[in-house]
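Hi support team,

I've been running sequence recovery on a batch of backbones for a student project. Most finish fine, but this one hangs at about 90% for roughly twenty minutes before it completes. I'm not sure whether the input is malformed or the queue is just slow. I've pasted the structure tokens below so you can try to reproduce it. Let me know if you need the job ID as well.

Thanks,
M.K.
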């Protein structure tokens, strides 16, 4: 793993945390304070990541510290993706106008109340992990280094679905498999005509959100 990549991951996460859309979502789900805590701590950690890259071979344990920061950032991005997915589910349910679907949604594992408690717990866990790793990092004697200025779009739309397909490599088979399932009249084969959700699972950084956007933008599903 290239430690400079950890800086880019942290930078990307900070951009999302600073966006208006995620700020509003965090308030709605009662996670605003913890997400702000994550943003503040990560801002401090980000400042020393470039110095950590330069000293990674000189200080014992520094590579492992960088790996932990990397994992925490990816876990946090997965949680933010969860906000986006929940928002899309809500739009689908509301657009359907079906009382039955709304009742099923409320009693499913993705109902708003269950989602709020789940997200609040996971975000607090991320904040605690980051605080511990940040405290551990003070022992390395790292110095804050300024990076080149980067443009951050603060008002990122939560439902943004654009992706440049030409820049995505090696996901065509996965995309086709998901489209095949979506185009089947009844993927589960049990006669149920209600909304069916096809999950895309995997560890952070595999490109789950990008794959979902590729499927979403395919003209065959219009």
């Amino acid at each position: 793993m290239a430690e400079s990549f950890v800086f880019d991951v942290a930078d990307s996460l900070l951009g999302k945390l600073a966006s208006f859309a995620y700020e509003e979502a965090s308030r709605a789900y009662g996670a605003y304070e913890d997400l702000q805590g994550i943003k503040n701590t990560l801002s401090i950690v980000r400042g020393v990541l470039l110095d950590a890259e330069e000293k990674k071979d000189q200080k014992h344990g520094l590579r492992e510290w960088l790996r932990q920061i990397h994992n925490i950032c990816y876990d946090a991005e997965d949680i933010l993706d969860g906000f986006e997915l929940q928002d899309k589910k809500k739009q689908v349910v509301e657009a359907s106008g079906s009382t039955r679907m709304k009742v099923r949604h409320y009693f499913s594992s993705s109902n708003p109340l269950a989602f709020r408690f789940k997200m609040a717990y996971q975000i607090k866990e991320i904040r605690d992990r980051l605080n511990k790793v940040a405290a551990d990092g003070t022992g390395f004697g790292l110095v804050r280094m300024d990076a080149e200025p980067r443009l951050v779009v603060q008002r990122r739309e939560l439902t943004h679905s654009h992706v440049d397909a030409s820049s995505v490599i090696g996901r065509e088979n996965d995309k086709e498999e998901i489209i095949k399932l979506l185009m089947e009249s009844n993927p589960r084969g049990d006669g149920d005509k209600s909304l069916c959700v096809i999950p895309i699972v995997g560890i952070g950084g595999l490109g789950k959100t990008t794959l979902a956007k590729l499927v979403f933008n395919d003209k065959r599903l219009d």
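--
Follow-up from support: It reproduced on our side and the slowdown came from queue contention, not your input. The chain has a mean pLDDT of 74. No action needed from you.
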